[in-house]
Amino acid sequence: MGLSADAEEFLSLPGTLRKPEEMGILLSFMPLDSPELFDLTFHASFASKMFILLKREGQNIQGFERMQQSLVESVQNVTSMLEQAEATYGIELGIRSKRADAVADFIADLTVLKEWMLARSQQ
Description:
This protein is mostly helical. The protein has five helices and no strands. Helix 3 packs across helix 5. The mean pLDDT is about 90.
């Protein structure tokens, strides 16, 4: 499959992606308007924002345990969805290695994608 013009535009953003090659592979199989990509970017963005909040506020914030559990669940959802994409499309994104930094990089890139898609929809 090939990339849409919108996906190519996103991937050409200078210096914003940690895994541009892998994101290109993913976006060549998962169109920007697909429900799967919506779910993936939602969970990644949620995890990213929750991580920032917990890091900033620390363990003394009310509801810390529940927020931490929500973060873990979102990271697990992203990991599972990326593994499913690898299996479904026969692609290699580096997720099966279970390296935390690989998942964290994807979460960062998917969050950038979510923000980019939101900004474009508001134009």
